[in-house]
Amino acid sequence: MTVSTKEMLKSAQAGGYAVPAINTNGGNYDIIQACCMAAEEAQSPMILAHYVATGAYSGHGFFVEVAKWCGDKVSVPVAIHLDHGGSFATCMMALKNRFTSIMYDGSALSIEENAKNTNEICKVAREFGVPVEAEIGELVRLDSGNAETANIARIDDVKRYLELCSPDSLAVGIGNAHGYYVETPVIRLDVLAEVRKITDVPLVLHGCTGMSDDVVKEAIKTGVAKINFGTLIRYKYVEFLTAVSIYPDFERIPIHGNTLPRHSAGRKIIY
Ligand SMILES: [Zn+2]
After folding, report:
1. What separation in Å is there between the alpha carbon of 251 and the centre of ligand 1?
2. CA–CA separation, 36 vs 193, rounded Å?
3. How far is the CA of 249 from the centre of ligand 1 (A)?
4. Domains of the chain with bracketed CATH
5. How many angstroms separate the alpha carbon of residue 270 from the centre of ligand 1?
6. Tell me: the pLDDT tens digits for 64-105?
């Protein structure tokens, strides 16, 4: 069933677990279907996530329709989430398209500006009953050439930000990044623990592809209720397509019904 992330993340936090948010590459049916089936099998809630950039190719509404189609056929809660909405207009687009959860990412802005925009978006989103994830401590892409340590949030900034606005969940930069880590990342769980002391808002960890299970589990103990994966599922999907493409008989290429992430990545990333 499709729901919002509001109760989902509160329950996760209270229960000491985290919900996987998996990027679906613009509404890719194989990935969405596999995620929903894996969630049903594991009896785990699931967040289907969507990047604006991939939606520009497939259509944002298309992603929502596929997510609803698959999410409403399973008994576990499934949320339809906008990842890294970069502006008020983008977040409004998501509300109009019936996303059930949105993220506003103003982490590249000043604390004041980020908080001001977060407030404006929260005000409208709450009218729709849609919770808002915010971010502080800008996450870098590992292929951008920036240092991985550039994204560690300062506690004073987090404190000031939360005095100015009240998002429903919060992503905090603690050394995590998007893309594949070249070396083992240094994830500052101590920063997360400090954040936990000043707020009980459900925390979100982005860039979990390549992070060790132990680090992810420790982060969950510190209050992370949502863990994001994008790169992992995309690589597994391409890996599968590459493997089946060598079949000599194209009529028999076993794409349909195999739901690869369900048997590999999809199962692996439900904590
Ligand atoms: Zn992210």
Report:
1. 38
2. 32
3. 39
4. 2-268 (3.20.20.70)
5. 18
6. 999 999 999 999 999 999 999 999 999 999 999 999 999 999
